[in-house]
Design brief:
The protein folds into 2 domains: about 170 residues, 3-Layer(aba) Sandwich (Rossmann fold), CATH 3.40.50.720; about 140 residues, 2-Layer Sandwich (Dihydrodipicolinate Reductase, domain 2). The protein has 12 helices and 13 strands. The chain has a 7-stranded mixed beta sheet with strand order 12-11-7-10-9-8-13. Strands 3-2-1-4-5-6 form a 6-stranded parallel beta sheet, with helices on both faces. Strand 9 and strand 10 form a beta hairpin. Helix 6 packs parallel to helix 7 and helix 7 packs antiparallel against helix 11.
Length: about 325
C-alpha cells in the first residue's frame, strides 16, 4: 500500500489547479471540454483543472478538420484565453496533463509520442488510434515510460448508460444490445469513426472478454453480433439510415431494461460530455485510468475483427486472430 501511495502522489499534489494542454483544435470537443473546465459560472463546471495552452494541429486531407479548425481555434483563444504554442514538446513544458483531441485518429500515435516521452498524463479522444497496430504501439509506449493513459468514448459515460448499468432490477447482465449512429469516413476503418460509440457502450454494460464478432453490413446499417468467452451475447446496431439516436437494452437474470429516451432537462442544456470530463479530471489527479488499457485494446480488436468479418461476408472472426 505504501508503494501505491508513493506512485500516485505526484498526480495528487497538483490536483487543485491542474494545468491542461490540448493537442488538436479541429473538433467540437475542444470547445465543449474547455467550457466545462474553464467556465466556473456554468452549472456543470468540472473543477480541478483548467485548459491553459494548445497546439493547433490539423489534417489538410480531412474535411472535418479543414472546415472547422479556424473556428474552434478562434473560440478557445479569444473566449477562454487559451494560449497557442508552436510544438507539442513546448506544450508539455507548460502543462501538467494533456488532452489529445485531434479529429484524425491517424495522427494520434505521432502526437502522443512526445507527450509520453515527457511523461505527462494523457487522455486520447476516440478513436485512440487509426488502427489496432497504432493503438498497441501507444499502449506499449505508455507502459514503457510509466505514463498514465486513458481513452474512451463519451457514450461510455452517457447518463443513460450509467443509469442502466447501475440499476439493480435486471440482476446479473446476461447480454446487451446497443445502437447508435455509424457514419463512415474513408480514411479510417468503418467503425472507428462513430461506430465506436455504441461499441464502447456495449463494453460499459458487458465488460471485457469478447471472443468473436460477426458483422452484417449494408449501406443502411451494420449489425454486429459478438460472443463473450462466458457464453453471453452482445449486439450492436450501427445506423446510417433512419433515426440516429443512441440507446441500449440489457437482458438480465431478473429482468430486461431499456435506456430511457435521451433528452436535456428544462433550463440549461445538459452537456453530452460532462461525465467523461469528470472522469478525465479524476484520472489526471490519480494517474489511474478508469478503463484498463487491456480493455481499450480489446475494443480495437473487436472493431478490427468486425472489419475482417465484413471482408469474409459475415463470417465469425476471433479477436485472438487479429491480435496476433
Amino acid at each position: 500500500m505504501k508503494l501505491l501511495t508513493l506512485a500516485i502522489l505526484p498526480f495528487l499534489t497538483f490536483a487543485a489547479d491542474l494545468r491542461v494542454g490540448i493537442i488538436g483544435l479541429d473538433t467540437s470537443h475542444v470547445v465543449q471540454f474547455t467550457q466545462l473546465l474553464n467556465d466556473s459560472s456554468r452549472s456543470e463546471h468540472v473543477p480541478g483543472a483548467r485548459v491553459v495552452a494548445a497546439f493547433k494541429g490539423g489534417s489538410p486531407d480531412v474535411a472535418a478538420s479543414v472546415n472547422r479548425i479556424e473556428k474552434f481555434t478562434a473560440e478557445v483563444t479569444s473566449k477562454w484565453g487559451v494560449e497557442l504554442v508552436d510544438s507539442i514538446p513546448e506544450l508539455c513544458r507548460r502543462v501538467d496533463a494533456v488532452l489529445l483531441l485531434s479529429v484524425d485518429g491517424r495522427k494520434h500515435l505521432e502526437q502522443a509520442r512526445p507527450v509520453l516521452q515527457a511523461k505527462k498524463p494523457i487522455f486520447i479522444d476516440k478513436p485512440m488510434a487509426g488502427s489496432l497496430k497504432d493503438a498497441r504501439e501507444i499502449v506499449k509506449l505508455a507502459r514503457a515510460s510509466g505514463t498514465p493513459l486513458f481513452s474512451a468514448s463519451s457514450q461510455r459515460y452517457s447518463s443513460e448508460i450509467l443509469a442502466l448499468k447501475a440499476n439493480p432490477k435486471p440482476g446479473t447482465i446476461l447480454g446487451a444490445f446497443t445502437w447508435g449512429p455509424a457514419p463512415i469516413e474513408p480514411y479510417l476503418p468503418d467503425l472507428f469513426w462513430y461506430g465506436i460509440h455504441s461499441i464502447e457502450a456495449l463494453y460499459a454494460l458487458m465488460g471485457p472478454g469478447c471472443e468473436s464478432v460477426t458483422r452484417t453490413h449494408t449501406p443502411a446499417i451494420d449489425l454486429l453480433v459478438a460472443k463473450w468467452k462466458d457464453g453471453r451475447i452482445g449486439t450492436v446496431r450501427g445506423i446510417r439510415e433512419g433515426a440516429k439516436s443512441y440507446g441500449a437494452v440489457v437482458f438480465g437474470s431478473q429482468g430486461n431494461l431499456t435506456t430511457p429516451p435521451a433528452g436535456a432537462p428544462a433550463g440549461e442544456a445538459r452537456s453530452n460530455y460532462v461525465n467523461l470530463v469528470r472522469e478525465i479530471v479524476r484520472f489526471f489527479q490519480s494517474g489511474v485510468p478508469p478503463v484498463k488499457l487491456d480493455e481499450t485494446l480489446e475494443v480495437f480488436a473487436f472493431m478490427e475483427a468486425a472489419e475482417v468479418s465484413k471482408s469474409r461476408h459475415g463470417a465469425a472472426v476471433a479477436l485472438q486472430e487479429v491480435m496476433r
